[in-house]
Amino acid sequence: MRMSFQEKLGQIVIISLLALLCLSVIYPFLYMMAVSLNEGTDAAKGGVYLWPRAFTWINYEIVLGNSVIRHAYLITILRTVVGTITGMLVTLIAAFGLSYRLLPMRKYLLGYVLVTMLFNGGLVPFYIQLHNLGLVNSFWVFIIPGMFSAWNMFVMLKFIQGIPEALIESAELDGASPVRILFQLIVPLSKPMLAALGLFTAVGHWNDWFAGAFYVTDQSLIPVQTFLQQLLSASDLSTVLGSNSNQEALARGAQMQNITLMSIKMAVVMVSAIPILCVYPFLQKYFVKGVLIGSVKG
To answer: What stretches pass through the bilayer (predicted)?
Structure first.
């Protein structure tokens, strides 16, 4: 079927707009990578946009070689792994339980969960609650508050309700317990949905700096995103990196003279962003299939 002139013009306009949108998203990433791979003093002169003019690995050597950053990176990885697994498990169990239509007070429980999704008590009462629970200045302040997500629970609930009831009833007739039905029937059929929501949960944990900035005072417990936020507001490297930056400056001599605070910032940004970006291509096929299918079934 031949397209008319108006249809061809419309496709050209759409493709051009999408290309500009992609460029606006990719260019900042390329710029930060170029600055992070460039000597800091040279990049400060300007003119570095897409490719490093004075290539060097020194910025990444400083970032990856600093014990403060490595420890913050470890906290972020642990938080992302533990928080994603526990959050998905608790939310899935809640969704599976509420999927039973004969569950006593099911409507009231769903309404209660919906209210928590629409309203919250505020930051100060939440902090007081965390303090009373002994979670402030603890690693578990990153895990326990995020173990349940009302939005994810409703998505999981709609997805589970879309599974034919005959499958669940046949499993019950064969003597399968609810736990066995959940992990041997529901979970295998829900892999696309779990993969999509799991990725969103992991990205939320990885990118969160708020909890580390307001609920943790111990510098050894801050995640890498909170460290990056501190670095962005710092006036010099020693403020955040501590005495290690002075020792490294003496050890590296002339190389350290080419480092600036901006070049270190860009290197930290790249180090904190690249790992989670590498996960997206492997789970991209699950996005639409996993999230939208739960919203159209019912």
So the answer is: 12-30, 72-96, 108-128, 140-160, 181-203, 262-283
Q: Which residue has the higher pLDDT, 90 or 256?
A: 90
Signed CA dihedral, 32, 33, 37, 42: sign only:
negative
Q: What is the dihedral of CA 183, 184, 185, 187, to 10 degrees?
A: 40
Question: Comparing 230 with 294, which gets the higher pLDDT?
Answer: 230
Is residue 73 over pLDDT 70? Answer: yes
Handedness of CA 58, 60, 63, 66 (dihedral sign): negative
CB 212 within 8 A of CB 246: no
Architecture of domain 66-296: Orthogonal Bundle (1.10)
Closest CA to 230 of 204, 265, 258, 273: 265
pLDDT, tens digit, 9 for 90 and up, residues 266-298: 888 888 888 888 877 776 666 655 545 544 444
- Token digits of residue 199: 């990725």
Closest CA to 192 of 149, 150, 172, 163: 163
282 contacts: CB under 8 Å, gap ≥ 6 = none
For residues 109 and 111, what is the distance between their CA atoms, to the nearest angstrom? 5
CB 96 within 8 A of CB 153: no
In angstroms, the CA 225 to CA 184 distance is 37
Q: Where are the domains of the chain?
A: 66-296
CA 296 to chain centre: 26
The two tokens of residue 192 are 């696309």
Write the CB contacts of 210 (distance below 8 Å, at least 6 apart in sequence).
none
238-242 long-range CB contacts below 8 Å, 24 or more apart?
240/68, 241/66, 241/68, 241/69, 242/68
